[in-house]
């Protein structure tokens, strides 16, 4: 069975924004907000009340914001907003209860824009951190759980929401997760924003990373009129294929050797040492993207026999690198393959931390595998449809089956190859995407491949650049982190593009390197790459230029 995506958008949406309806709008009190009848949606409840003197947490609750590396934001002493909570379902047969949260700042603090926020991992969203950031910047902002918390009874990262009690796939929630809930959020969010302020938002935006990045890409392709601009970081746009890449290292370790994290880190540092000079600047970052040349020039066996000092509590233990360690690393860098040798997907990015897909930990004196948690839920509930399935007991033949079933079942719903951005372009939409070149979870090559497909669709890089730009960030991990400079404010650059017609020729980025020193870059729009000028300070953006190079 293959699950297919929706092939239409709701035609009634445009009627909400007719000049006649706009002229009739008057501001509505927070506690008097209501929703009109919406085809395909049944509103179960709507509650709204004023919140004053709200103090957001100084540090985001990372347990509730999986896969999204949110940096701390300076906030005012307190925030005030109209807090709206909507519960909805799509049909009696769907049995879904979807939560939508809207935070609407006072009219005096509103910047005239609406911003929808995305999810991470197997969660559709509903994280407080992104909403706080949007509210601080003056946006009317919204989030949705897509119904994946099963009415606040489960943690969506388990993936258990994908199955009905009888063991069949919950196609309604899968559709919500794929694309429908972000569309619902756009429609309801913009409707209530207009009602509260007495006028529609001047512009509407979406911002997300990882699953949120995928949601942004899907919104552009399937609902081209929902957002004027989309920021999509590290997009999980090839989700059915990602299972093989994410579970490949745990599979290999389970059937060979389980190294300590410090041993894998030693291999990562050596890989960076080999690949770093390829861009002309020895700065601890892999700035150019030549994965084939990089990996081919790296011999993991060169570390065999060396000694790695591993911190273990209050003591340091010396570990000798073995041939088994080297063979494991080489296979991880080669990427997931079927038993017959066919390549399934891209390997992890050169220079990325092994902690993402090849995490290990010392438990009671033994080194054990710590797989990326959502991939376990994906295998159990999505692929095998068996919550009791022993994923860590999977053999190579089982892995082959799981990888192929993942693609066969979900490519139609959660793949990206069939998505065309022509309607998004024609609607005047702009998408700014970025991806860390040291992403430890999602290979940047997948996003690069998507961008190249768009270039083919529209006649080359310049044509694609008119509405969709991709920036690659050297040394940056998944949605942030790592030793490289991440985008400082991609949304501000997008707003200038949408509202002033000024496309981002570069994207300002900052970070802290492995030595704790500040690093800046002006990231290049793909296919251009950062090239060192040969003499400037490698920590400063001005020492690099953008140039289109070839992987030779």
Automatic annotation (TrEMBL):
Residues spanning the signal sequence: 1-23
InterPro entries with a match to the protein in the record: AB_hydrolase_fold (IPR029058), Tannase/feruloyl_esterase (IPR011118)
Keywords in alphabetical order: Calcium, Disulfide bond, Hydrolase, Metal-binding, Serine esterase, Signal
Enzyme class: hydrolase
SUPFAM superfamilies tied to this protein: alpha/beta-Hydrolases
Transmembrane domains' residue ranges: none
GO MF, one example: metal ion binding
Entry superkingdom: Eukaryota
E.C. number: 3.1.1.-
Pfam families: Tannase (PF07519)
Family: Belongs to the tannase family.
Protein name per Swiss-Prot or TrEMBL: Carboxylic ester hydrolase
Species of provenance: Aspergillus ellipticus CBS 707.79
């Amino acid at each position: 069975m293959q699950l297919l995506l929706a092939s239409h958008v709701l035609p009634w949406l445009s009627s909400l924004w007719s000049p006649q309806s706009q002229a009739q709008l008057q501001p509505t009190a927070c506690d008097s907000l209501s929703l009109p009848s919406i085809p395909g949606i049944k509103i179960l409840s709507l509650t709204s009340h004023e919140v004053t003197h709200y103090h957001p947490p100084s540090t985001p609750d990372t347990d509730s914001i999986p896969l999204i590396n949110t940096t701390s934001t300076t906030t005012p002493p307190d925030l005030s907003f109209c807090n709206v909570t909507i519960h909805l379902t799509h049909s009696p047969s769907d049995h879904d209860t979807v939560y939508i949260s809207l935070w609407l700042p006072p009219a005096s603090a509103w910047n005239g824009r609406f911003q929808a926020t995305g999810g991470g991992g197997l969660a559709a969203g509903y994280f407080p951190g992104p909403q706080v950031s949007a509210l601080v910047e003056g946006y009317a902002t919204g989030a949705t759980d897509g119904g994946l918390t099963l009415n606040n009874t489960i943690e969506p990262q388990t993936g258990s929401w994908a199955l009905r009690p009888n063991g069949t796939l919950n196609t309604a929630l899968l559709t919500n997760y794929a694309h429908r809930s972000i569309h619902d959020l756009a429609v309801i969010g913009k409707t209530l924003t207009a009602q509260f302020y007495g006028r529609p938002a001047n512009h509407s935006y979406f911002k997300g990373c990882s699953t949120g990045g995928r949601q942004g890409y899907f919104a552009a392709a399937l609902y081209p009129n929902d957002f004027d601009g989309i920021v999509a970081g590290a997009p999980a746009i090839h989700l059915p294929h990602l299972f093989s890449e994410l579970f490949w290292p745990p599979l290999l370790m389970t059937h060979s050797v389980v190294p300590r994290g410090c041993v894998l880190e030693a291999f990562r540092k050596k890989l960076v040492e080999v690949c770093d000079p390829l861009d002309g600047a020895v700065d601890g970052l892999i700035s150019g993207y030549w994965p084939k040349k990089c990996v081919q020039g790296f011999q993991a066996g060169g570390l065999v026999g060396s000694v790695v000092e591993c911190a273990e509590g209050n003591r340091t233990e010396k570990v000798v690198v073995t041939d088994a360690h080297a063979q494991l690393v080489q296979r991880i860098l080669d990427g997931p393959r079927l038993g017959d040798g066919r390549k399934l997907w891209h390997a992890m990015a050169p220079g990325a931390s092994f902690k993402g897909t090849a995490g290990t930990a010392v438990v009671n004196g033994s080194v054990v595998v710590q797989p990326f948690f959502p991939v376990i839920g994906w295998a159990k509930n999505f692929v095998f449809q068996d919550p009791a399935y022993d994923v860590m007991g999977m053999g190579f033949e089982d892995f082959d089956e799981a990888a192929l079933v993942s693609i066969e079942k979900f490519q139609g719903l959660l793949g990206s190859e069939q998505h065309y951005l022509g309607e998004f372009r024609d609607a005047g939409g702009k998408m700014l995407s970025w991806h860390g070149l040291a992403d430890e979870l999602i290979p940047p090559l997948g996003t690069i491949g998507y961008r190249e497909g768009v270039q083919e669709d529209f006649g080359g890089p310049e044509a694609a650049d008119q509405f969709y730009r991709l920036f690659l960030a050297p040394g940056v991990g998944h949605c942030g982190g790592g030793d490289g400079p991440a985008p400082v404010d991609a949304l501000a650059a997008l707003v200038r593009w949408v509202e002033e017609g000024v496309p981002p020729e570069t994207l300002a980025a900052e970070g802290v390197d492995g030595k704790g020193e500040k690093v800046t870059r002006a990231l290049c729009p793909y296919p251009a790459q950062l090239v060192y000028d040969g003499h400037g300070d490698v920590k400063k953006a001005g020492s690099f230029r953008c140039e289109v190079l070839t992987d030779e």
